[in-house]
C-alpha cells in the first residue's frame, strides 16, 4: 500500500442500485475504494423533487455535508432548512438527518470519521411523506 489513494468518485459503484434506491438517488460510498481506515467520504445525487430514501443518525460519527450543486431542503431533527450550492452543514451524531432535492436535483459530498456499525435508520414521516 502506498501513502495515498487516487480515485474518481464517479467510478465508485452506485450503492443505490443494489439497495433498491435508484429511483431516489445515486450513492457512491468511497471509504473502501480509497483504502481509508479512519475517515469516510460519500457522494450523493438526489434526483429532482425526490427525498433521500431514509433518515438516519449515528451513535458516534459527526458528519459534514457540503452541497456541491442544486438546491433543496435538509431535515435536521424536527427542523427543515433550505440548502444550496457550497453550504456546509455539520451534524452531531444524534441528530436525525435526511434531504429533499429541488427542481434541479441536489449533489452532496459527505465526510465523517468512520465508526463501524454506527449508523441507525430512523422512521421519519418527513422522508416517506406521511408526516
Q: CATH superfamily, please?
A: Jelly Rolls
Portion in helices = under 10%
Radius of gyration (CA) equals 14 Å
- How many DSSP-defined strands? 8
Can you tell me the residue ranges where pLDDT is under 50 for at least 5 consecutive residues? none
CATH topology: Jelly Rolls
Oligomer: single chain
User: In CATH terms, what is the architecture?
Assistant: Sandwich
**In CATH's first tier, which class applies?**
Mainly Beta
Q: Mean pLDDT, rounded to whole units?
A: 95
Structure write-up:
With 131 residues, the chain is mainly beta. The protein has one domain: Jelly Rolls. It is 3% helix and 47% strand. It has 1 helix and 8 strands; from the N terminus they run E-E-E-E-E-E-E-E-H. It has one helix at residues 125-128; strands spanning 25-29, 39-46, 55-58, 63-76, 79-84, 88-91, 97-113, 119-122. Strands 1, 2, 4, 5, 6 and 7 form a 6-stranded antiparallel β-sheet that branches. It has a two-stranded antiparallel sheet with strand order 3-8. A hairpin with a 2-residue loop joins strand 4 (63-76) and strand 5. The radius of gyration is 14 Å and the shape is globular. The model has no long low-confidence stretch (mean pLDDT 95).
What features would you highlight for this structure?
mainly beta; 47% strand; globular; 131 residues; 8 strands; Jelly Rolls
How do the strands and helices of this protein lay out in sequence?
Elements: E1 25-29, E2 39-46, E3 55-58, E4 63-76, E5 79-84, E6 88-91, E7 97-113, E8 119-122, H1 125-128
Antiparallel strand pairs: 1-2, 2-7, 3-8, 4-5, 4-6, 4-7
Amino acid at each position: 500500500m502506498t501513502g495515498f489513494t487516487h480515485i474518481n468518485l464517479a467510478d465508485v459503484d452506485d450503492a443505490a442500485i443494489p439497495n433498491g434506491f435508484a429511483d431516489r438517488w445515486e450513492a457512491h460510498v468511497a471509504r473502501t475504494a480509497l483504502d481509508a481506515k479512519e475517515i469516510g467520504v460519500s457522494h450523493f445525487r438526489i434526483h429532482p423533487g425526490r427525498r433521500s430514501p431514509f433518515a438516519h443518525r449515528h451513535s458516534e460519527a459527526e458528519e459534514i455535508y457540503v452541497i456541491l450543486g442544486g438546491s433543496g431542503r435538509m431535515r435536521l431533527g424536527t427542523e427543515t432548512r433550505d440548502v444550496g450550492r457550497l453550504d456546509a452543514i455539520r451534524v452531531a451524531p444524534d441528530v436525525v438527518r435526511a434531504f429533499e432535492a429541488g427542481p434541479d436535483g441536489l449533489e452532496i459530498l459527505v465526510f465523517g470519521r468512520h465508526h463501524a456499525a454506527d449508523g441507525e435508520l430512523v422512521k421519519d414521516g418527513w422522508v416517506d411523506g406521511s408526516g
